[in-house]
Amino acid sequence: MGLRRALTEFDLTNIIVGSIVGADIYIASALTAGLVGPFAIVVWVVAGICAATIAVVFAYCSYYVPRAGGPFAYVSAAFDDFYGFLTGWSLWIAELLALPVFAIAFALYLGSVVPLGPAAEVAVRGLFIGALTVANILGVRAAGRLNDLLTIIKLLPLVVFVVAGLVFAVVHPAHFLGNYRPFMPFGLEHAAYAVVLVFWAYVGFEMGTFPADEVKDPARSIPRAIVRGMAIVGIFYVMTNFVLYGLVPGGELAASTTPLVLAGTVLFGSLGAVLMTVGALFSVSGSDESGMLGSSRLAYAMAIDGLFPSIFARLHPRYGTPYVILIVEGVVAFVLSGYADLPGLISFSVFNLAFSFLLTSFALIVLKDETSPLLGQTVLPLAGIGICLFLLVSTLPADLIVGAVVLAAGVPVYLYFSPKTDIHHLKEEFLSEEALFLRRVAAKERYLANFIRLVREAWEVGRRVVHRL
């Protein structure tokens, strides 16, 4: 049984927007306010440009390899299963860690309007994760339609907020502009780390590449959905933060855990607080639903290649969804939701994301075809490599150490599963639907031989790139 093609380009665009616009927009502004002050508006622009660059790299890769698995599939096609596994492993870890963040945020925002005790918070997190797990198991079409609804609902409060905030700026320019002074109260000492935190707010575009086998006309739909989704998010983020910093002094933002609720109160009083709280709840729900949809397809693709337990590739007999991995991810997310260090989770997530994005940028160098109509294929992956290296070195030192350990922990997982025969009956079905992707299915080479061969190939690619420049 193969995955069913039921997602339209509109569904995919909403999955991308829904994955990006989530709890991050409701908390990241407070974190950056304490690091760089109003200069954070520039940080949001810079991080958006960085994310858009990586997103276009993904769009180009999906053009050449329109199959489920996203960067795991791209790197595997360009280089080798081992490096594809490391890409998928780091990305899966990053997305898995993000799921409990949304559950925690949902309980916190709900608690701001409905007092919750410790036991009630645990119950809310469990019901939240359980409901979204069931929605994904019922079918990708149901999950896609649910995400369409959640995306539209959660963007409406932001539209109202931005429009009302701009009107406020025109009516009260002295108040609005006064909150932008001083513009750089803390200098640029923490600007790089602020970019890391804000970059996480833009992450989610990669989710649009995971369910490729469930998208109608993936080679056309995925790149267009990524570009359209990033444009929508970029406009919303920059405008939202422009209004936010003009409404509330930086010191108050830094001290608040719900900055948009605080700004909504400035605009509409208690009604504004309720409006932004409801928007936050739907926003968090949409992000977790999209994240669960994408990360489960990543694990499914890796299981088909024999790099994850084969049970992760088991599809529901009625709904045709990878229900086993969905249940596993739901349980893990619930357990991790007891860990409440949100900035730490964000920083570590960005480290893993940057590593997988780095390998994806290298993959485009190999995958690109100069005869294709895609523009900037030589420059974009180089820009992506530079951005990823910047993000890696800008995370916290602890993230570098723990991240290296987590990546190393993936090696024995690969060595255990890689000698296994992949699931041929699923893989044949999987590949037969992709006219643009032909992959070798011969016996795997030894691990050391793969490494030596890849070093040689990387050296040749580097020489060609330097020669062209």
* CATH architecture label name: Up-down Bundle
Element string (H = helix, E = strand): HHHHHHHHHHHHHHHHHHH
CATH topology: Amino acid/polyamine transporter I
First-to-last CA distance: 47 Å
Largest sheet, in brief, is: none
> What is the CATH C level class, in words?
Mainly Alpha
- β-strand number: 0
Radius of gyration: 22 Å
Which structural class is indicated by helix and strand composition?
mainly alpha
Number of helices: 19
The CATH homologous superfamily name equals Amino acid/polyamine transporter I
Beta-strand share of residues = under 5%
* Helix content range: over 70%
Number of domains: 1
The overall average pLDDT, rounded, is 77
Shape: globular
Which residue ranges are poorly predicted, with pLDDT under 50 across at least 5 consecutive positions?
A: 421-455
Concise summary:
By secondary structure, the chain is an all-alpha fold. The chain has 19 helices and no strands.
Outline the structure in words.
- It is found in: Cell membrane.
- GO terms for molecular function: transmembrane transporter activity.
- Keywords: Cell membrane, Membrane, Transmembrane, Transmembrane helix.
- Pfam families: AA_permease_2.
- This is Amino acid permease.
- About 7% of the residues have low confidence.
- The protein has 469 residues and is mainly α.
- The radius of gyration is 22 Å and the shape is globular.
- The longest helix is centred in the middle third of the chain and has 35 residues.
- It has one domain: Amino acid/polyamine transporter I, CATH 1.20.1740.
- The chain has 19 helices and no strands.
